[in-house]
Amino acid sequence: MATVFGKSSEAYLKSKVEPTVNTIKAQTSEIKTKTDKLPVDTAAILGTPFVDISSDIGAVAGGVGGIDAKLGAPVNANISADIANVKSDTGDIKTKTDKLPADTAALLGTPVGADLATDIAGAKASADGVKSVTDNLPDGGALTSLAQGSDLTAAQADITAIKAITDNCPPNTGAAFVSVENAVSNAHSTTDGKVDSVKAVVDSTESKIGTPSVDLITDIGGGFTAVMNSVGGTLESDVAAVQSDVTTIDGTVNTIKSNQDVPSQNSANNSHISDVVGNKTDTPEGGDSLVSIGKTTAARVSMSVADDKISYPNGTTEETVYEITPSGAKYRLKAPRVDCINCTQSGTLRVYEKINGVYRSVLSQSTSAGEVYILAVDFVTDNDVKITYQADVGEGVSRDIPYVVGTIGN
Length: 410
Description:
410 residues, alpha+beta, four-stranded antiparallel beta sheet, 12 helices, 51% helix, 17% strand
Protein backbone atom coordinates (compact mmCIF):
# COMPACT_ATOMS: atom_id res chain seq x y z
CA MET A 1 0.00 0.00 0.00
CA ALA A 2 1.28 3.43 -0.84
CA THR A 3 2.53 5.64 1.90
CA VAL A 4 2.72 9.37 2.31
CA PHE A 5 5.59 10.59 4.39
CA GLY A 6 5.89 7.12 5.78
CA LYS A 7 2.15 6.80 6.69
CA SER A 8 -0.54 4.73 5.07
CA SER A 9 -2.16 6.96 2.43
CA GLU A 10 -5.67 5.57 3.04
CA ALA A 11 -5.63 6.07 6.74
CA TYR A 12 -4.13 9.51 6.39
CA LEU A 13 -6.74 10.69 3.89
CA LYS A 14 -9.56 9.25 6.00
CA SER A 15 -8.38 11.16 9.04
CA LYS A 16 -8.33 14.41 7.09
CA VAL A 17 -11.57 14.04 5.09
CA GLU A 18 -13.89 12.25 7.52
CA PRO A 19 -14.49 15.21 9.94
CA THR A 20 -15.42 17.47 7.04
CA VAL A 21 -17.77 14.87 5.62
CA ASN A 22 -19.44 14.44 8.98
CA THR A 23 -19.97 18.20 9.31
CA ILE A 24 -21.54 18.39 5.83
CA LYS A 25 -23.83 15.46 6.66
CA ALA A 26 -25.02 17.20 9.88
CA GLN A 27 -25.72 20.48 8.07
CA THR A 28 -27.48 18.65 5.26
CA SER A 29 -29.69 16.91 7.86
CA GLU A 30 -30.66 20.27 9.38
CA ILE A 31 -31.50 21.69 5.91
CA LYS A 32 -33.61 18.63 5.16
CA THR A 33 -35.52 19.07 8.46
CA LYS A 34 -36.55 22.56 7.37
CA THR A 35 -37.26 21.75 3.72
CA ASP A 36 -39.43 18.83 4.76
CA LYS A 37 -41.82 21.44 6.15
CA LEU A 38 -42.07 23.27 2.79
CA PRO A 39 -44.90 22.44 0.34
CA VAL A 40 -44.18 19.76 -2.24
CA ASP A 41 -44.43 22.25 -5.16
CA THR A 42 -42.99 25.44 -3.68
CA ALA A 43 -42.63 27.08 -7.00
CA ALA A 44 -46.31 26.52 -7.85
CA ILE A 45 -47.31 28.09 -4.57
CA LEU A 46 -45.02 31.11 -4.93
CA GLY A 47 -46.18 31.63 -8.48
CA THR A 48 -44.28 33.29 -11.28
CA PRO A 49 -42.29 36.28 -10.03
CA PHE A 50 -42.88 39.66 -11.63
CA VAL A 51 -39.23 40.00 -12.41
CA ASP A 52 -37.46 37.61 -10.15
CA ILE A 53 -37.75 36.59 -6.53
CA SER A 54 -35.23 39.15 -5.31
CA SER A 55 -36.97 41.99 -7.17
CA ASP A 56 -40.38 40.92 -5.90
CA ILE A 57 -39.14 40.81 -2.29
CA GLY A 58 -37.72 44.31 -2.72
CA ALA A 59 -41.06 45.58 -4.04
CA VAL A 60 -42.87 44.03 -1.10
CA ALA A 61 -40.44 45.63 1.31
CA GLY A 62 -41.12 49.01 -0.31
CA GLY A 63 -44.86 48.48 0.04
CA VAL A 64 -44.48 47.59 3.69
CA GLY A 65 -42.60 50.80 4.22
CA GLY A 66 -45.53 52.66 2.70
CA ILE A 67 -47.91 50.89 5.10
CA ASP A 68 -45.79 51.95 8.08
CA ALA A 69 -46.04 55.53 6.90
CA LYS A 70 -49.82 55.30 6.66
CA LEU A 71 -50.19 53.57 10.08
CA GLY A 72 -47.97 56.10 11.80
CA ALA A 73 -45.63 55.52 14.75
CA PRO A 74 -46.96 53.01 17.32
CA VAL A 75 -47.92 54.30 20.79
CA ASN A 76 -46.21 51.37 22.44
CA ALA A 77 -43.16 49.41 21.38
CA ASN A 78 -44.80 48.24 18.15
CA ILE A 79 -48.11 47.83 16.30
CA SER A 80 -48.66 44.43 17.93
CA ALA A 81 -48.47 46.00 21.41
CA ASP A 82 -50.98 48.70 20.37
CA ILE A 83 -53.36 46.05 19.01
CA ALA A 84 -53.01 44.05 22.27
CA ASN A 85 -54.00 47.15 24.30
CA VAL A 86 -56.97 47.82 22.02
CA LYS A 87 -58.04 44.20 22.39
CA SER A 88 -57.83 44.46 26.20
CA ASP A 89 -59.94 47.67 26.22
CA THR A 90 -62.44 46.11 23.81
CA GLY A 91 -62.71 43.12 26.16
CA ASP A 92 -63.49 45.43 29.13
CA ILE A 93 -66.15 47.24 27.06
CA LYS A 94 -67.67 43.93 26.02
CA THR A 95 -67.83 42.77 29.65
CA LYS A 96 -70.00 45.79 30.46
CA THR A 97 -72.12 45.75 27.29
CA ASP A 98 -72.85 42.06 27.87
CA LYS A 99 -74.84 43.18 30.90
CA LEU A 100 -77.05 45.53 28.85
CA PRO A 101 -80.48 44.29 27.73
CA ALA A 102 -80.61 42.54 24.36
CA ASP A 103 -82.71 45.38 22.91
CA THR A 104 -81.47 48.51 24.67
CA ALA A 105 -83.31 50.81 22.32
CA ALA A 106 -86.63 49.07 23.02
CA LEU A 107 -85.95 49.26 26.77
CA LEU A 108 -85.22 53.00 26.68
CA GLY A 109 -88.30 53.65 24.56
CA THR A 110 -88.99 56.46 22.13
CA PRO A 111 -87.56 59.81 23.30
CA VAL A 112 -90.15 62.41 24.32
CA GLY A 113 -88.16 65.15 22.71
CA ALA A 114 -85.97 65.19 19.67
CA ASP A 115 -83.65 62.54 21.08
CA LEU A 116 -82.54 60.89 24.33
CA ALA A 117 -79.99 63.62 25.07
CA THR A 118 -82.78 66.24 24.88
CA ASP A 119 -84.87 64.18 27.34
CA ILE A 120 -81.92 63.91 29.76
CA ALA A 121 -81.36 67.68 29.57
CA GLY A 122 -85.04 68.29 30.38
CA ALA A 123 -84.91 65.87 33.34
CA LYS A 124 -81.81 67.64 34.68
CA ALA A 125 -83.58 71.00 34.48
CA SER A 126 -86.54 69.59 36.43
CA ALA A 127 -84.16 68.09 39.03
CA ASP A 128 -82.46 71.47 39.41
CA GLY A 129 -85.86 73.05 40.05
CA VAL A 130 -86.67 70.50 42.74
CA LYS A 131 -83.24 71.05 44.33
CA SER A 132 -83.82 74.81 44.48
CA VAL A 133 -86.93 74.06 46.58
CA THR A 134 -85.33 71.45 48.87
CA ASP A 135 -82.32 73.72 49.47
CA ASN A 136 -84.70 76.12 51.23
CA LEU A 137 -85.97 73.39 53.59
CA PRO A 138 -84.57 73.26 57.18
CA ASP A 139 -81.01 72.02 57.51
CA GLY A 140 -80.40 72.46 53.76
CA GLY A 141 -82.99 69.81 52.99
CA ALA A 142 -81.47 67.24 55.38
CA LEU A 143 -84.28 67.90 57.94
CA THR A 144 -81.99 66.68 60.76
CA SER A 145 -83.54 69.12 63.23
CA LEU A 146 -87.01 67.66 62.75
CA ALA A 147 -88.29 64.88 64.95
CA GLN A 148 -86.33 61.68 64.61
CA GLY A 149 -87.64 58.17 64.95
CA SER A 150 -86.83 58.09 68.67
CA ASP A 151 -88.69 61.40 69.20
CA LEU A 152 -91.73 60.07 67.38
CA THR A 153 -91.58 56.92 69.50
CA ALA A 154 -91.55 59.01 72.70
CA ALA A 155 -94.42 61.16 71.39
CA GLN A 156 -96.38 58.03 70.56
CA ALA A 157 -95.84 56.77 74.11
CA ASP A 158 -97.16 60.07 75.52
CA ILE A 159 -100.17 59.94 73.19
CA THR A 160 -100.87 56.37 74.29
CA ALA A 161 -100.75 57.42 77.97
CA ILE A 162 -103.13 60.36 77.32
CA LYS A 163 -105.47 58.08 75.42
CA ALA A 164 -105.51 55.63 78.32
CA ILE A 165 -106.76 58.47 80.54
CA THR A 166 -109.29 59.88 78.08
CA ASP A 167 -110.62 56.40 77.41
CA ASN A 168 -111.81 56.38 81.04
CA CYS A 169 -113.69 59.66 80.63
CA PRO A 170 -117.46 59.49 80.17
CA PRO A 171 -118.68 59.35 76.57
CA ASN A 172 -120.14 62.86 76.97
CA THR A 173 -117.19 64.54 78.67
CA GLY A 174 -118.70 68.00 78.45
CA ALA A 175 -121.84 66.86 80.27
CA ALA A 176 -119.67 65.10 82.86
CA PHE A 177 -117.79 68.34 83.59
CA VAL A 178 -121.11 70.11 84.01
CA SER A 179 -122.07 67.45 86.54
CA VAL A 180 -118.79 67.98 88.39
CA GLU A 181 -119.36 71.72 88.43
CA ASN A 182 -122.84 71.17 89.86
CA ALA A 183 -121.45 68.87 92.53
CA VAL A 184 -118.84 71.45 93.51
CA SER A 185 -121.51 74.13 93.69
CA ASN A 186 -123.69 71.94 95.90
CA ALA A 187 -120.73 71.18 98.16
CA HIS A 188 -119.95 74.88 98.42
CA SER A 189 -123.51 75.59 99.46
CA THR A 190 -123.22 72.99 102.21
CA THR A 191 -119.78 74.11 103.49
CA ASP A 192 -120.74 77.76 103.23
CA GLY A 193 -123.63 77.13 105.59
CA LYS A 194 -121.34 75.33 108.06
CA VAL A 195 -118.84 78.19 107.95
CA ASP A 196 -121.64 80.56 108.76
CA SER A 197 -122.54 78.38 111.76
CA VAL A 198 -118.94 78.46 112.99
CA LYS A 199 -118.80 82.20 112.62
CA ALA A 200 -121.95 82.52 114.69
CA VAL A 201 -120.38 80.45 117.49
CA VAL A 202 -117.21 82.57 117.43
CA ASP A 203 -119.24 85.76 117.57
CA SER A 204 -121.17 84.41 120.56
CA THR A 205 -117.94 83.45 122.34
CA GLU A 206 -116.46 86.86 121.73
CA SER A 207 -119.52 88.54 123.21
CA LYS A 208 -119.20 86.37 126.30
CA ILE A 209 -115.47 87.13 126.70
CA GLY A 210 -116.07 90.79 126.42
CA THR A 211 -113.72 93.50 125.26
CA PRO A 212 -110.10 93.01 126.53
CA SER A 213 -108.48 95.84 128.47
CA VAL A 214 -105.44 95.81 126.18
CA ASP A 215 -105.65 92.66 124.05
CA LEU A 216 -106.56 89.05 124.72
CA ILE A 217 -102.95 87.81 124.96
CA THR A 218 -101.97 90.51 127.48
CA ASP A 219 -105.04 89.83 129.56
CA ILE A 220 -104.34 86.07 129.63
CA GLY A 221 -100.67 86.70 130.56
CA GLY A 222 -101.71 88.90 133.48
CA GLY A 223 -104.08 86.25 134.75
CA PHE A 224 -101.35 83.59 134.52
CA THR A 225 -98.92 85.79 136.45
CA ALA A 226 -101.51 86.27 139.17
CA VAL A 227 -101.99 82.53 139.46
CA MET A 228 -98.22 81.82 139.61
CA ASN A 229 -97.58 84.51 142.18
CA SER A 230 -100.19 82.99 144.46
CA VAL A 231 -97.80 80.15 145.52
CA GLY A 232 -94.88 81.92 147.12
CA GLY A 233 -95.44 85.49 146.32
CA THR A 234 -93.41 85.44 143.07
CA LEU A 235 -92.22 82.87 140.55
CA GLU A 236 -88.58 83.64 141.43
CA SER A 237 -89.16 82.82 145.11
CA ASP A 238 -90.78 79.51 144.13
CA VAL A 239 -87.78 78.52 141.94
CA ALA A 240 -85.36 79.41 144.76
CA ALA A 241 -87.30 77.19 147.14
CA VAL A 242 -87.12 74.26 144.67
CA GLN A 243 -83.37 74.72 144.24
CA SER A 244 -82.91 74.64 148.02
CA ASP A 245 -84.84 71.38 148.20
CA VAL A 246 -82.69 69.84 145.43
CA THR A 247 -79.51 70.79 147.29
CA THR A 248 -80.84 69.11 150.42
CA ILE A 249 -81.72 65.95 148.49
CA ASP A 250 -78.31 65.87 146.81
CA GLY A 251 -76.55 66.09 150.18
CA THR A 252 -78.64 63.22 151.48
CA VAL A 253 -77.77 61.09 148.43
CA ASN A 254 -74.07 61.80 148.87
CA THR A 255 -74.29 60.73 152.48
CA ILE A 256 -75.95 57.47 151.48
CA LYS A 257 -73.37 56.94 148.73
CA SER A 258 -70.42 57.48 151.07
CA ASN A 259 -71.84 54.86 153.40
CA GLN A 260 -72.22 52.37 150.48
CA ASP A 261 -68.83 52.84 148.72
CA VAL A 262 -66.19 50.09 148.86
CA PRO A 263 -62.66 50.32 147.47
CA SER A 264 -61.97 49.12 143.88
CA GLN A 265 -58.74 48.29 142.11
CA ASN A 266 -58.95 51.47 140.09
CA SER A 267 -59.48 54.62 142.19
CA ALA A 268 -60.88 56.36 139.12
CA ASN A 269 -63.78 53.88 139.02
CA ASN A 270 -64.96 53.81 142.66
CA SER A 271 -67.60 56.51 142.45
CA HIS A 272 -70.49 54.07 142.37
CA ILE A 273 -71.27 50.64 143.68
CA SER A 274 -71.86 49.38 140.09
CA ASP A 275 -68.30 50.44 139.19
CA VAL A 276 -66.94 48.13 141.86
CA VAL A 277 -69.35 45.19 141.65
CA GLY A 278 -70.27 45.40 137.97
CA ASN A 279 -73.08 43.46 136.33
CA LYS A 280 -73.56 40.25 134.44
CA THR A 281 -73.06 41.90 131.05
CA ASP A 282 -69.44 42.79 131.88
CA THR A 283 -66.90 40.83 129.80
CA PRO A 284 -63.44 39.45 130.60
CA GLU A 285 -60.72 42.07 130.05
CA GLY A 286 -63.59 44.57 129.88
CA GLY A 287 -62.95 46.51 133.09
CA ASP A 288 -61.96 46.43 136.78
CA SER A 289 -65.35 45.52 138.27
CA LEU A 290 -65.56 42.40 140.37
CA VAL A 291 -67.67 40.73 137.68
CA SER A 292 -65.09 41.47 134.97
CA ILE A 293 -62.22 40.33 137.16
CA GLY A 294 -64.08 37.14 138.01
CA LYS A 295 -64.84 36.35 134.38
CA THR A 296 -61.25 37.13 133.38
CA THR A 297 -59.92 34.87 136.13
CA ALA A 298 -62.28 32.06 135.11
CA ALA A 299 -61.23 32.41 131.49
CA ARG A 300 -57.56 32.34 132.42
CA VAL A 301 -57.76 29.26 134.60
CA SER A 302 -59.92 27.28 132.16
CA MET A 303 -57.99 24.56 130.38
CA SER A 304 -58.52 22.74 127.12
CA VAL A 305 -56.65 19.60 126.05
CA ALA A 306 -56.24 18.20 122.51
CA ASP A 307 -55.47 14.45 122.67
CA ASP A 308 -55.30 13.02 119.16
CA LYS A 309 -52.95 11.78 116.42
CA ILE A 310 -51.96 12.57 112.82
CA SER A 311 -51.09 10.18 110.00
CA TYR A 312 -47.66 11.21 108.77
CA PRO A 313 -47.25 10.30 105.07
CA ASN A 314 -44.29 8.43 103.64
CA GLY A 315 -41.66 11.03 102.75
CA THR A 316 -39.76 13.90 104.29
CA THR A 317 -42.29 16.75 104.08
CA GLU A 318 -42.95 18.99 107.09
CA GLU A 319 -46.50 18.26 108.30
CA THR A 320 -48.63 20.12 110.91
CA VAL A 321 -49.25 18.05 114.05
CA TYR A 322 -51.53 20.59 115.78
CA GLU A 323 -52.45 24.25 115.23
CA ILE A 324 -53.99 26.74 117.70
CA THR A 325 -56.06 29.72 116.42
CA PRO A 326 -57.23 31.70 119.49
CA SER A 327 -59.09 34.52 117.64
CA GLY A 328 -57.40 37.17 119.76
CA ALA A 329 -57.97 35.61 123.22
CA LYS A 330 -54.89 35.17 125.40
CA TYR A 331 -53.84 31.67 126.44
CA ARG A 332 -50.88 29.80 127.88
CA LEU A 333 -49.10 26.99 126.03
CA LYS A 334 -46.97 24.75 128.24
CA ALA A 335 -45.03 21.56 127.49
CA PRO A 336 -46.98 19.92 124.64
CA ARG A 337 -46.12 16.22 124.14
CA VAL A 338 -45.53 14.34 120.87
CA ASP A 339 -45.05 10.54 120.77
CA CYS A 340 -42.77 9.11 118.05
CA ILE A 341 -43.36 5.51 119.18
CA ASN A 342 -44.42 4.40 115.69
CA CYS A 343 -41.57 6.11 113.86
CA THR A 344 -38.59 4.06 112.62
CA GLN A 345 -36.57 7.07 111.47
CA SER A 346 -35.21 10.18 113.14
CA GLY A 347 -36.84 13.56 112.51
CA THR A 348 -37.44 17.08 113.81
CA LEU A 349 -40.28 18.60 115.88
CA ARG A 350 -40.79 22.36 115.56
CA VAL A 351 -42.97 24.96 117.32
CA TYR A 352 -43.98 28.12 115.40
CA GLU A 353 -45.71 31.31 116.58
CA LYS A 354 -47.38 33.62 114.05
CA ILE A 355 -45.86 37.04 114.69
CA ASN A 356 -47.15 39.98 112.65
CA GLY A 357 -48.91 37.53 110.33
CA VAL A 358 -45.82 35.32 109.68
CA TYR A 359 -45.02 31.98 111.38
CA ARG A 360 -41.65 32.21 113.17
CA SER A 361 -39.83 29.20 114.66
CA VAL A 362 -39.55 29.34 118.47
CA LEU A 363 -38.33 25.75 119.08
CA SER A 364 -36.65 22.97 117.05
CA GLN A 365 -36.29 19.51 118.67
CA SER A 366 -34.47 16.55 117.05
CA THR A 367 -36.18 13.17 117.57
CA SER A 368 -35.22 9.51 117.56
CA ALA A 369 -37.36 6.52 116.60
CA GLY A 370 -39.73 5.21 119.28
CA GLU A 371 -39.32 8.11 121.78
CA VAL A 372 -41.88 10.48 123.34
CA TYR A 373 -40.96 14.17 123.56
CA ILE A 374 -42.10 16.94 125.91
CA LEU A 375 -41.44 20.19 124.09
CA ALA A 376 -39.83 22.83 126.27
CA VAL A 377 -42.21 25.73 125.61
CA ASP A 378 -44.12 27.74 128.22
CA PHE A 379 -45.45 31.14 127.15
CA VAL A 380 -48.61 33.28 127.05
CA THR A 381 -49.78 34.66 123.71
CA ASP A 382 -52.84 35.58 121.72
CA ASN A 383 -51.18 34.60 118.39
CA ASP A 384 -51.63 31.48 116.28
CA VAL A 385 -49.25 28.62 117.19
CA LYS A 386 -48.54 25.33 115.39
CA ILE A 387 -46.45 22.22 116.04
CA THR A 388 -44.92 20.36 113.06
CA TYR A 389 -42.97 17.13 112.41
CA GLN A 390 -40.53 16.34 109.59
CA ALA A 391 -38.85 12.94 109.06
CA ASP A 392 -35.17 12.84 108.07
CA VAL A 393 -35.74 9.73 105.92
CA GLY A 394 -38.95 8.38 104.40
CA GLU A 395 -40.64 5.70 106.53
CA GLY A 396 -41.74 3.64 103.55
CA VAL A 397 -45.35 3.80 104.80
CA SER A 398 -47.46 6.37 106.65
CA ARG A 399 -47.05 6.46 110.46
CA ASP A 400 -49.47 7.55 113.21
CA ILE A 401 -47.99 10.20 115.52
CA PRO A 402 -50.02 10.75 118.76
CA TYR A 403 -49.91 14.09 120.59
CA VAL A 404 -51.30 15.83 123.71
CA VAL A 405 -51.50 19.65 123.66
CA GLY A 406 -52.93 21.50 126.66
CA THR A 407 -53.73 25.23 126.77
CA ILE A 408 -54.85 27.41 129.69
CA GLY A 409 -57.26 30.20 129.01
CA ASN A 410 -58.19 29.27 125.43
